[in-house]
């Protein structure tokens, strides 16, 4: 079943790139290797891509620059590969729309599991039934099947995949306190870690888009020590 999915491995170190590509190919995926930004662009222009494994430290265009470029034109799944000490880069990558990240040296079985989960999630999102409801709150409309957010003024507000999944989970459970690990399950389907800031980063991004005053949120309310609750109605 994996053979229908196309993964691009972007890594400038040839041995690491070939080893990872071979591992993914053995798991049944179609894999394209890219040593830099130009090779990534060529791979994406050549046909459908389901997942990009993108190293942050690349010659020429670095991973964050390439992530920004990808997000201007595509919602393809992106897993960033970072160094252990690159915590700031990891947070920035999440803010820019990366779906997940792994740190070097990583366990290839764990990376494969994360890749499978992300591809499964993006495929499920594409298969959302057309008759799913539209959620309305405080003048906003979140159209679940079309993955579209419309402001009270009637303007479409762009959401990354992670932002949409987080907001969809919250508005589908109004008044219910969702813990960070609850939300992390909705957003990334990966194991929870005590220091994982993915949810907090996404909450901040969504608040900046839907709250009148993101510093004094009225729709997505923090429940200290537990998580978040959507207080904007269903």
Question: What does this protein structure show overall?
Answer:
With 234 residues, this protein is α/β, with parallel strands linked by helices. It folds into two domains: 125 residues, Rossmann fold (3-Layer(aba) Sandwich); 97 residues, Winged helix-like DNA-binding domain superfamily/Winged helix DNA-binding domain (Arc Repressor Mutant, subunit A). The protein has a five-stranded parallel β-sheet with strand order 2-1-3-4-5, sandwiched between helices. Strands 6-7-8-9 form a four-stranded antiparallel β-sheet, with helices on one face. α1 links the parallel β1 and β2. α6 packs across α7. The mean pLDDT is 85.
What would a concise description of this structure say?
The chain has helices spanning about 15-25, 35-45, 65-75, 85-95, 110-125, 160-170, 180-185, 200-210; strands spanning about 5-10, 30-35, 50-55, 75-80, 100-105, 135, 140-145, 150, 155, 175-180, 220-225, 225-230.
Helix-strand category: alpha/beta
The CATH superfamily of the largest domain appears as: Response regulator
What is the element string, with H for helices and E for strands? Answer: EHEHEHEHEHEEEEHEHHEE
First CA to last CA: what distance?
37 Å
Q: How many beta-strand segments?
A: 12
> What is the number of domains?
2
Gross morphology: elongated
Strand proportion, as a percent range, falls in 15-25%
CATH architecture of the largest domain: 3-Layer(aba) Sandwich
**Strand order in the largest sheet:** 2-1-3-4-5
**Rg from Cα:** 18 Å
Using the coordinates above, name the CATH class of the largest domain. Alpha Beta
Main sheet properties = 5 strands, parallel
